[in-house]
Amino acid sequence: MPALTRAEAQFRAGLLDVRHYAVDLDLTRGEEVFGSSTAIAFAARAAGDTFVEIKPAELVRVTLDGRDLDTGALADGRLPLHLDSGEHELRVEAAMRYSRTGEGMHRFTDPADGETYVYTQLFLDDVQRVFAAFDQPDLKAVFDVSVTAPAGWTVLGNGIAHRDPETDPDAAPDTGTGAGPAAGARWRLTPTPPIATYLVAVAAGPWHSVRTEHADLPFGLHCRRSLAAHLDADADELFDVTRRCFDRYHERFSEPYPFDSYDQAFVPEFNANAMENPGLITFRDEFVYRSAVTDTERQTRAMVIAHEMAHMWFGDLVTLRWWDDIWLNESFAEYMGYQILSEATRFTGTWTDFAVARKSWGYDADQRPSTHPVAPPRVPDSASALQNFDGISYAKGASALRQLVAWMGEKDFFAGLGDYFTRHRFGNATLADFIESMARASGRDVPEWADAWLRTTGVDTFRPETWEGDDDVWVLEVEHTGRRPHRLDVGLYDEDPGEPGRMALRERLEHDYDADLGLKSVSAEGRAPDLVLLNDGDLTYAKIRLDGRSRETALRCLSGIPDPLSRAVLWNAARDMVRDAELPPADYLRAAAAHLPAEADLAVVQAVLAFARGPVADDYVPDADRPAARATVAAICRELLRRTDEGADPGLRLAALRTLIDCADEPDEVRDWLAAGTAPGGPVLDPDLRWRCLKRLAVLGAVGPDRIEAEVARDPGASAQEGAARCLAALPGADAKAAAWAAMYGDGGAAGTGEPSNYLFTATARGFWQPEHREVLAPYVPRWFAETPALAARRGAAIAAAAGREGFPRGFVAEETLRLGEECLERGEPVPALRRRLVDQLDDLGRALRVRRAAAGPPAG
């Protein structure tokens, strides 16, 4: 299917004025297809040729102003239209295919109880998988949607849903009971204000719903029935976060919430964390926790709620004109999500989590060949745009906005936002529009700031040097490499002479660094601090380094720094130095062993454990040293467990136990825990911990298929199906690997029952590649590069991304893997979604090879 180009979109936007869609969906036609009828009212500003998009199983009939069009003219999802100037009505009737990959209208049957659910995910250009549309963000229109659904189903959408009295005279607005008329019922959704095509949403099925009212609007939470008890257990927390954020946004923004309801549906097999459909936000239903989670994970869920709520203004009320301005959606929602959550809820440490866990996503992406500006000057087509929903558009963009607020002041920033919302309400906007509003509010040179921060790529670096001079004076000299101005804090710390290892803040200095490269020096009386921490408080986006004295102090006293955000900045610096081959991986592991057992912030613990167990132990140390690296991480976890033996900090204990299971190189201990149903001293092994234990035992060859299937019988449901797919693929035998490969790459799935869904594909891929199985997996490395391009082209962008992410040959850190990848890029013709992941994977692989070479030292002789 051809991607919509920027030039095509600009021409069509100039030609058409789209006013209204009447969409009628029939979900009662069986398991494979649904009915789709669309009437589009629009005007052509002049005579001209254009097209409407639709990707049907069967295009039944198309009329333009009552005149039949040739359905055979449909090609590559585009139906050509020849228009005279003036008003038009286009009617399209089609049968559409349900999706199994989380794109378009996804259909899911819950193995726990046999109930079926469908929901739409129409981002970025998948509306054409559901109904005919002029599918681009700047052709906003009113959407009037009707749905015919099976009896017993509830329909949710962008507006309040009512069962149609024409088909059910006694129907009233749905009460969340799931009760319906004896046969299929027709539902009508309140027409929307003008919104973009990609924001239309429908979710239908026998939902379990919890409802309330706030600010004179209906609020709802929805999930599949098999998760009802888990949603009920968390409903108070979910509503509390939602209400608090909703009220805080109204305090911060001049424009009120612009839609008639606020539903949050937790849906199965969702590809993203969530989607900002106005009035009906869809979330992956893993956020309905069926097992124990840490408080940091609850904070992450709350941040996603706050992020998606920000989109009601950033993206839904005011929508980007074209996909080069996705930062107007994602960067703003990311920044506001963290900020509003920290202001309005009990989760006050959000910026520490952002610093130590989220921000590294942006740093990593910005140092790869695939990097791009936060606001790229020209995105050529929709396929290219889809690849830019990455760490740059989210984490780097949010960091840039945090720096903008520090530079221009919070009052002027929110005044500029108010101006931006008011001027472009229910319309479209660009970077230039945003800059104009900010400059109008602040009177500052925002265009120059935007050019430096939003139009450039790469990460600036700050390197300090300190020395003590004559006359009781010390000097700090900072080398800045990069192209951006920065406002940042410099923390000066001293070790407490009465309590070695304990650090005290002497002073925090605010500094502005111009975009000009070079050195900046300051001096002060007294002795030099024991630790100079640039970007203390993490206000800017840059890599920081430590002078020699500060590095020695940090390695010895990191856990003694009082502020968790300052510790997060130092852990990030250590992480960057490992990745840049400036700090040996063994030194990072030693620092983790020295300081993590005393760390009080759970977000820091989880992030450091994840980096140590993942990239460090699996990729950055030589193959022969992997067991020793895992053993070091395991020892850290045991120290954390000992610290929590008396029941203190169950979240910390859970994080440590998870990683300890993943580090096991002998099966006996994990097998004993699984048999007992608990770890010594707790916690009880809930379903997630049981599947984690089983996966590690599978990797070690300590369980077989029968034991895995027995766990499915013990824990029936979708999560068990995914757990079984992971575990079966993680078995070390040649037959198990062959079966897993056939499930992922065969045309009909492992048993000839159809190709795996997006979630089952991902689960199988996560189990398949295990560094411990190098010998049996070696033949699959060249097969991955030979066969994945065809798989990605056949199954679409979601599977292409999963194959390039979870399915990449993990653990084969070798020049030959790099060679095969470069050859695939050159000759394999990967689709854009796979090409982008492959470029990133090969860059990470090259980085791992450089880290290994640097740690090994120069060759002998």
Automatic annotation (TrEMBL):
E.C. number(s) listed in UniProt: 3.4.11.2
Q: Which GO terms describe its molecular function?
A: aminopeptidase activity
Cofactors named for this entry: Zn(2+)
Q: Which Pfam families match?
A: ERAP1_C, Peptidase_M1, Peptidase_M1_N
In terms of SUPFAM superfamilies, this protein maps to: Leukotriene A4 hydrolase N-terminal domain, Metalloproteases ('zincins'), catalytic domain
**Sequence segments annotated as region (Disordered):** 163-186
Q: Which reaction does it catalyse?
A: Release of an N-terminal amino acid, Xaa-|-Yaa- from a peptide, amide or arylamide. Xaa is preferably Ala, but may be most amino acids including Pro (slow action). When a terminal hydrophobic residue is followed by a prolyl residue, the two may be released as an intact Xaa-Pro dipeptide
Would the keyword Hydrolase be found if you checked this record's keyword annotation?
yes
Cite the entry's keywords alphabetically.
Aminopeptidase, Hydrolase, Metal-binding, Metalloprotease, Protease, Zinc
Where are stretches of biased composition, namely Low complexity? Answer: 170-185
Establish whether keyword ATP-binding is in the entry: no
Domain ERAP1-like C-terminal, residue spans: 531-845
Spell out the CDD domains in the cross-references.
M1_APN (cd09602)
Residue limits of the Aminopeptidase N-like N-terminal domain? 85-164
Q: Look at the named UniProt entry and state the broad enzyme category this protein falls under.
A: hydrolase
Q: Which residues form the Peptidase M1 membrane alanine aminopeptidase domain?
A: 239-453
Q: Which protein family is named in the record?
A: Belongs to the peptidase M1 family.
What is the name listed in the Swiss-Prot or TrEMBL entry for this protein? Aminopeptidase N
Q: Tell me which species this is from.
A: Streptomyces synnematoformans
